[in-house]
Amino acid sequence: MNIDKMTRKQFEELPHREWSEEIKCDSIIILPLKEMHDSGYRCMDFVAVKDNEAVCLLSGCSDVIHIDGIAGLGKDWLKKYGSIPRLIPPSEWCIDCLPRSGLLRLWPGSREMSCGSALGSFEIYAEPKPRKK
Q1: Does residue 46 contact residue 66 with C-beta atoms inside 8 Å?
Q2: pTM for this entry
């Protein structure tokens, strides 16, 4: 269903992915939950979105979003750089607010994103979009 027409209840009713399944998507929608995390902060779930269509719920147990990983160094940074890099290419992260549900949507400007495992801290990464043939 098109995310611009969905209600919060419709987002909440989406199926969850397997906790360790890696998901590639265009954006995520932040879905605050009533449940509290052990940290004392409210848990969040996230909806994977592809081509403006809701795909699935991603977490349900996270109290933090780590953009481009916990240190912001990007996915597989140690393999790419060998040590902590001095310069990291920018990702151009954007947020808007959906018209019907009022929920926030987050996406990396001209890239796609991948979502890490469903853990207490939720990691998302900007990745180059695959070239179309």
Answers
A1: no
A2: 0.81
